[in-house]
């Protein structure tokens, strides 16, 4: 029996929006003649229990379950996933960028029969049935609206990132560990090229009161940077 959210969604007129990184990847694949295999789920996805990220009422979206409440004008109905043909090494190219900490919106990636997740910095793959590329985004406002401008995984070009005044080192309260928040998504970054770059720029760790206040809700992406 499908989730009761399906009937609520249908009665609301089947509204949904698609996370910006997924839209970007759809258009990127079109430009590179790579097949787009789906964003909004088919009937199997929409009736699955629990509903997952191809559904605009996913129970596996994170940090939120969709929708949180019966939404007004459908603003909480987001599709947080996309499927693409794994052509020209696309899956490995995206995995490389994820491991480098360049895709802070990416919750998990499936490709070539392996599942990779932000929880360990996309380092360890686990068996998965997807041979195509599946991307799932976090369900927070920063991830849903993240601008991937300029990102070209097949050419090795990372997303264009503007400097941001909140980019700084953060020492977690009650801990000697020092983390780096990118100031855009407010997520801790694991030790990688982007972290090393900002570590050189921002020499003195400071406490960011906003980051400190929301510390418990911020997922650790990969391993903690060294103290």
Question: Can you characterise this structure?
Answer:
The protein is of the alpha+beta class and 227 residues long. It is 23% helix and 16% strand. The chain is built from 7 helices and 10 strands. The chain has helices at 4-11, 20-31, 43-46, 90-99, 141-144, 193-201, 209-213, and strands spanning 17-18, 36-38, 78-79, 81-84, 106-111, 114-117, 126-127, 133-137, 168-171, 178-181. The longest helix has 12 residues, at 20-31. The chain is globular, with a radius of gyration of 18 Å.
Question: What keyword list fits this structure?
Answer:
globular; 16% strand; two-stranded parallel ribbon; alpha+beta
Which regions have little confidence, pLDDT < 50, spanning 5+ residues? 163-179, 182-188, 203-227
Care to count the β-strands?
A: 10
Average pLDDT for all residues: 77
Number of domains: 2
- Sheet-strand content, in percent, reads 15-25%
| Sheet of most strands | 6 strands, antiparallel
Distance between the termini: 50 Å
Count of individual helical segments: 7
Which outline best applies? globular
Helical/strand content category: alpha+beta
- One letter per element, helices H and strands E, the order comes to HEHEHEEHEEEEHEEHH
Topology:
Elements: H1 4-11, E1 17-18, H2 20-31, E2 36-38, H3 43-46, E3 78-79, E4 81-84, H4 90-99, E5 106-111, E6 114-117, E7 126-127, E8 133-137, H5 141-144, E9 168-171, E10 178-181, H6 193-201, H7 209-213
Parallel strand pairs: 1-3
Antiparallel strand pairs: 2-4, 4-8, 5-6, 5-8, 6-7, 9-10
């Amino acid at each position: 029996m499908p989730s009761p959210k399906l009937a609520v969604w249908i009665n609301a007129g089947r509204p949904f929006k698609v996370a910006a990184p997924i839209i970007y990847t759809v258009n990127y694949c079109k430009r590179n003649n790579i097949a787009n295999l789906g964003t909004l789920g088919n009937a199997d996805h929409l009736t699955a229990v629990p509903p997952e990220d191809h559904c605009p009422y996913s129970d596996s979206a994170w940090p939120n379950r969709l929708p949180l409440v019966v939404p007004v004008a459908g603003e909480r109905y987001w599709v947080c996933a996309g499927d693409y043909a794994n052509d020209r090494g696309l899956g490995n190219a995206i995995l490389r960028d994820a491991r480098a900490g360049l895709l802070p919106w990416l919750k998990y990636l499936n490709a070539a029969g392996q599942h990779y997740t932000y929880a360990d910095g996309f380092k360890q793959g686990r068996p998965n049935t997807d041979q195509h590329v599946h991307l799932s985004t976090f369900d927070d406002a920063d991830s849903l609206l993240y601008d991937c401008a300029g990102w070209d995984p097949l050419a090795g070009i990372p997303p264009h990132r503007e400097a941001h005044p909140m980019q700084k080192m953060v020492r977690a309260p009650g801990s000697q560990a020092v983390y780096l928040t990118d100031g855009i998504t407010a997520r801790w970054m694991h030790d990688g090229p982007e972290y090393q770059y900002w570590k050189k720029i921002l020499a003195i760790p400071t406490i960011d009161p906003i980051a400190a206040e929301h510390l418990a809700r911020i997922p650790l992406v990969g391993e903690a940077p060294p103290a």
